[in-house]
Amino acid sequence: MLYMPDPICGYYRGTRFDWSGVVAALECAGHNYFGPWFERHDPMVHDAITGPVEEFQTNGAGLGYAEADAGGAFVRIGVGVVRKPEESAYRQFGTYEILDPGRWKCHHGRTDLEFVHELDGGSGYEYIYRKNVRLLDGRAILVLEHSLKNTGCRPIETTQYNHNFFVIDGLPSGPDFVVEFPFEVQALGDLKGLAEIRGRQLVYLQELRKGQSILTPLAGFGETAADYDITISNRRTGAGVRIKSDQPISKLVFWSIRTTLCPEPYVTFQLDPDREACWAIAYQFYTLTDG
User: Fold this and answer.
1) CB distance 26 to 85 below 8 Å
2) Share of the chain residues as helix, strand and coil, in percent rounded to the nearest 5
3) Most exposed of 18, 19, 33, 112 (fewest Cβ within 10 Å)?
4) 3 state DSSP class of 61
């Protein structure tokens, strides 16, 4: 189940995350993988969103934010043109006034749903962004196929990451979960005694209580797409998911609270005018008994 982008009555109307491909729920082999992880839903809150959701950043802010004057405009890819208020710094967790939501089109297929977002507000930052959410026939695989074409006159430099708000079988984050990487992983932040690194694995040492959280950058990945290959499995229910992409990781973060666990891989693109980037992320769902 997916939510549709809608600036008037959409499930998510914040300005942090891309509005396309928001997964309300996904069930495979009797296991659930996504859903609400928050206590109360407000469509204007920056993270009141579910599923494998994505954010675009330019130097840690929105596209064109640095050069915009207070009262001027900048761009949130996958959202639209927003107003820059009088403020000392960009607020990633803030919700900005939307001046132009762009144009959304959605195309339904038998096993896919394509979202197209076009923005051409005349600022020089203009694009056509496509995301196709596709289920592979006969296989427990969900693929997010992306393309971003620069149709403006200014270069687009952007980093995109997937937050991956996993809510697997409604279970709390804790020792039943194992997160595994294809490289010897290193935690650069304080795991607070809640988790630890064991070679290629991040494991929980205790069940997280309400109010506890883990947030750390991760290191150890290389320069090829082979390292964008992350698995999450639950030893109690056997539910698992493998996440792969055709792009190298440029940055990697792990965040978790009691209700969700989130490996967050980043990819980076530099697009001159009339250039296009294409990339895909595949989610293969399995049970541990599959072998």
Assistant:
1) no
2) 0, 45, 50
3) 112
4) strand
User: Structure pTM?
Assistant: 0.96
pLDDT digits (tens, 9 = 90+) for 32-42: 999 999 999 99
- The residues near 109 (Cβ < 8 Å, ≥ 6 apart) are none
pLDDT of residue 69: 96
Q: Which residues in the chain show pLDDT less than 70?
A: 290-291
Residue 39, exposed/middle/buried by CB under 10 A (0-12, 13-18, 19+)?
exposed
**Token pair listed for 233:** 């499995």
Cα 68 from Cα 150, distance rounded (Å)? 20
As given in the structure block, the two tokens for residue 246 are 């055709």
Report whether 10 contacts 19 (CB < 8 A): yes
Q: Which residues of 221-242 are buried (b: 16+ CB within 10 A; e: fewer)?
A: beeeeebbbbbbbbeebbbbbb
**Distances in whole angstroms, Cα of residue 279 to Cα of each of 43, 67, 267, 269, 276:** 28, 28, 9, 10, 10
- What token pair was written down for 244? 């792969």
Polymer length in residues for the chain:
291
d(CA 66, CA 125): 13
**CB burial class (10 A; 0-12, 13-18, 19+) of residue 80?**
buried
159 token code pair: 């980093």
CB environment 14-34: b (16+ within 10 A), e (fewer): bbbbbbbbbbeebebeebbbb
Convert the pLDDT of each residue in 184-203 to its tens digit. 999 999 999 999 999 999 99
Q: Which domains does the chain have, with CATH numbers?
A: 2-290 (2.70.98.10)
Angle at 218 between CA 174 and CA 37, to 5 degrees: 40
What stretch of H or E contains 212?
none
